Amino acid sequence: MSTSTSQGVRLEAVSKTYGSETVVRDISLTIPQGEFFTLLGPSGSGKTTTLSMIAGFTLPDGGRIHIDGKDATRAPPRDRGLGMVFQNYAIFPHLDVFGNVAFPLNVRKVPKPEVAKRVAGALEMVKLTSFEKRFARELSGGQQQRVALARAIVGHPPVVLMDEPLGALDKNLRYHMQVEIKEISRRLGMTVIYVTHDQEEALTMSDRIAIMNRGSIAQIGPPREVYERPGSAFVARFLGEANLIAAKREGGALRGAGGAWFEVASDRPQAAGGQVFVRPEKVSILPEGGAPSANQIAGTVRHTAFLGNVVRYEVTLPDGQIVLCDATNASGTVLRQPGEAVRLGWQRADALLLEA
Amino acid sequence: MIGPTLRTAALQLLVVLLCTAMLAPIIIVVIASFSGDGYLKFPPDTLSLRWYVRFLGDPRWLASLWNSFLIAAMTCVLSTVLGFLAAYAMARGTFSIRKTITALLLMPLIVPHVVTAIALYFLSARFGLIGFKPWIAVAHSVVALPIVLVILQSALKVVDPNLERAAMIFGCTRMGVFRRVVLPLVLPGVVSAMLFSFLTSFDELVISLFLAGIRAETLPVRIWNSLLLEVEPTIAAVSSLLIAVTCAALLVEWGVRRARERTLATRN
Amino acid sequence: MPLRLAAKWALIAPALALLLLLFITPIGWFIWESLTELGSLEEVWLETQAVLGSRAILGAILNTNGIALTVTVMVLVIGYPLSYALSRARGLAFSLVLLCIVIPYFTSVIVRTYAWMVILGRNGLINQILLGLGFVSEPVDLLYNRTGVIIGMTYVLLPYMVLTLYAAMKAVDQRLLQAAEGMGAKPMAVFAKVFLPLTLHGVTAGSLIVFILALGFFITPALMGGPGDIMMAMLIEREIELSHNWPVAALMTIVLLGITLALYALYGRVSDKAEGGFAR
User: Is the distance from CB of A29 to CB of A212 less than 8 angstroms?
Assistant: First the structure.
């Protein structure tokens, strides 16, 4: 249970099938010690089953799981040396806060004075000192969340699993807890495997994100990379708003509707076409009268949404496709009205060619 | 608006009358048991404890009380243990034939006790088990099991599977999960199950009638045998004892449940 | 944490074994052995015809169904208003009404039967009141006849009905009644057009359960009935205890079990729709 010499978590071709349905398909991952790693995906993507197999609640049908350098594929949960925060907190209702946080230590027969010291330390870390005698029913959702967190870290496990731990909290508290969890994990140098379906949360907290889709990992990488360099339309869409503009290869160039042509970062000339990906915030409205060049399209404003710091335009292209453009609400910005004709443009470096 | 008021008053009167009628027989037996008269009469002319004295001074009555207690205690342990295991399996496992299993497990409540009793008698007579108390307890467990199951299944609904997962990840074995988490949470249900299975056996007559023989005559069997002869006041004293046991069991059950509700009640 | 295949069967096996070995098997074995005692299938068939054709047995079957039906109706008529009051009562009133139903419910059947024997006897409370008020000149026979059986069984079975109906009534959405009232329905109309139809499945389930239990009754009719009130369960007991006539007992058991299980299957269908439970 020490944090210094551990080696993180490694999954090798792990699979799980229920009946005729393969929920997890050949997943391989290496999570180094100290990393904040997020499994992100829609419900049914296999992220919860993957976490459940790492925890030992579900046995994989194939593949191996190594925790801290040891093969833990078939080890019972208690021998994996993990901490865990559950979606609904799973606070023991018959124990008070002290009893809950002390639980992992008491089960492992840690001497009483040591238990008291470590529980106090864990409670201090989650800012719940002086709550020892309360029961779960006397705590707010946020406080229960903190108890669950304290219980997960009190034994100094090298790896802590978190299953949508913030799902039940309101937005404000959520942000607060995101910062706190991240802070604690950094301070203790522990590996965190975090499951969520909230892309914003994943982007805020993670060192690396694995985006899961239908039992497989669609892409894996640091937040900025998966956001700006998605490998597929699925990843592009799942991580926020994405423009995916149809393009065809004609004479070596990628052509779109209304005479536009595109240039993208790392083009694959052998591809016959596909979708040009560009995030709305990378798209800008061009001033009147510039010379036509690559990555420019003409359209008509269909809808203008004033979001405060950003103005979002929905622009209809000649072929009916809709492109989103997020313009910063900088000083002196003139709002374009629906019906206005505009020209949009973006940098080549911000565009990618994805398979249709 | 005299109509609705009158109707409400009429309904209230009816309910009071019916409730009185429900409780009256039990109260009358208890009062009659304190009669000082030489034969059963209600209301009694004089009051005394003579029927209790006679009951407690009669070795046959005492022996049947002891038999009943012993058999009920064994039934209570056996049916609660078997019932708990089955209820836990039903709560945490998935069975494709769940409906069939449930129907089978509840069947002893539906099948007339006479049928169960005769079939068991048929079996027991061949193996010389008539009058063997542990065997009677096993037989009583057949009819106590469904009651235990119903109680424990609803008690187990309260235990979130994630609590068990949490206990396991924090170091518990299956037994540890049971001892540290499941048992403390379902304890009130287990207490109810034990009390009601005890009562079921303690009050059971038909199966005992066939299986008890002379060796293991239980209190209800002894009452039955006496009633076939005459309606004597000693039976009122014995009945009062059975009523007291029932009330005590209900009181304990109520107390345990209340205490638990207070501990576990959620804030909102 | 879900149980693995072996674990869940290992846990449920002892309970299933108990029921298979001490419930299903003995019943099957007793019926099988008793009937094969008669010899060939043809002989069994002849005996069956003889038994079912006999006056005493046919009488018992008719008696049983007649008594069970009467008791069910009585229990329903008394139980419906009582359950209604229970479903509407709050606080202390609720606790008191519940107490009046639960205490008898959990008291031994033989004690409850005995209590009514004390009340209905020739020197019992009822006769004393009737004589005292001068309504009758000599004691009325309330015991050891059909009246006694009906009163005793109604009392014993009433709690089953009340608890089943209560569950059904508690589930009725009060807003529906308010809506009906709001649309101008008179109280009787609200009851007849809304409340009664919504609790009808409870009535069906409660009546079925009471009827099923009444069919197999033994203690109360045996102690409170007269020579003309022999029910099937009593007949089975007598065939074995007195005449040691196992084949007849087995045939009677088949009839009783058949009716009971058929009605239980029906009950299963009804209560699938209505989650009304009973525990004892």
Answer: no
Is B135 found in the same domain as B50? no
| Gap between the terminal Cα atoms of chain C | 31
- Whether residues A138 and B185 touch (CB distance < 8 A) is answered with no
> Domain locations in chain A?
9-233, 241-354
C-beta separation of C150 from C228 below 8 A: no
pTM (2 decimals)? 0.85
Which parts of chain C have pLDDT scores under 50? 275-280
Q: Is residue B136 part of a domain?
A: yes
Q: Cα distance from A162 to chain B (closest Cα, Å)? A: 12
Q: Do B79 and B129 reside in the same domain of the chain?
A: yes
**For position A6, what pLDDT does the model report?**
61
Distance from CA of A97 to the nearest CA of B (A): 14
C16 vs chain B: nearest CA distance in angstroms? 7
User: Is the CB of B133 inside 8 Å of chain A's CB atoms?
Assistant: no
Q: B69 in a domain, yes or no?
A: no
Output the CA torsion sign for B50, B53, B55, B60: negative
* Same domain? B239 vs B225: no
Question: Which residues in A lie closer than 8 A to residue B180 (C-beta atoms)?
Answer: 103, 107
Which two three-digit tokens encode residue B218? 């239980």
Structural domains of chain B, count = 2
CB atoms C118 and B25 under 8 Å: yes
| CATH (domain of B179) | 1.10.3720.10
Domains of chain C listed by start with CATH number: 45-118+144-273 (1.10.3720.10)
Strand arrangement of the beta sheet that strand A243-250 belongs to:
A261-262, A253-255, A243-250, A273-278, A352-354
Contacting partners of chain B (3+ CB pairs under 8 A)? A, C
Chain A, 144-203: which have a CB under 8 Å from a chain B CB? 151, 155, 161
Q: Nearest-CA distance from A37 to chain B in Å? A: 19
CB neighbours (10 Å) of residue B198?
A: 24
B12 touches chain C (CB under 8 A): yes
For the A9-233 domain, the top CATH level (class) is alpha beta
Q: Is residue B114 part of a domain?
A: yes
B29 interfacial to chain C (CB closer than 8 Å): yes
SS3 assignment, position A274: strand
The domain made up of A241-354 has a fold known as OB fold (Dihydrolipoamide Acetyltransferase, E2P) (2.40.50)
Domain assignment present for B47: yes
Cis geometry, peptide bond prior to residue B112 (ω within 30 degrees of 0)? no
B204 and B166 within one domain: yes
**Same-domain status, B183 and B220:** yes
Domain span at B236: 26-57+232-268
- Give the bridge partners for B84, in sequence order: none
What's the pLDDT score for residue C278? 39
Amino acid, single-letter form, for residue B214: I
Q: Which residue of C has its CA nearest to B148?
A: C279
The model's pLDDT over A145-167, given as tens digits with 9 standing for 90+, comes to 999 999 999 999 999 999 999 88
Q: Which candidate, A164, A160, A149, places its Cα nearest to that of A195?
A: A164
Residue A166's SS3 state is coil
Q: Are B26 and C107 a contacting pair at CB < 8 A?
A: yes
Q: Are residues B163 and B203 in the same domain?
A: yes
C22–B138 C-beta distance less than 8 A: yes
Shared domain check, B145 and B91: yes
Do B216 and B151 share a domain, yes or no?
yes
Interface check B251 vs C, CB under 8 A = no
- Which pLDDT tens digit goes with each residue over C259-274? 999 999 998 887 765 5
The verdict on a CB contact (< 8 Å) between B180 and A86 is no
Please state whether A56 falls in left (phi above 0), alpha (psi between -120 and 50) or beta: left
Q: How many contacts (CB atoms, under 8 Å) link A and B?
A: 73
Cβ <8 Å between C114 and B41 = no
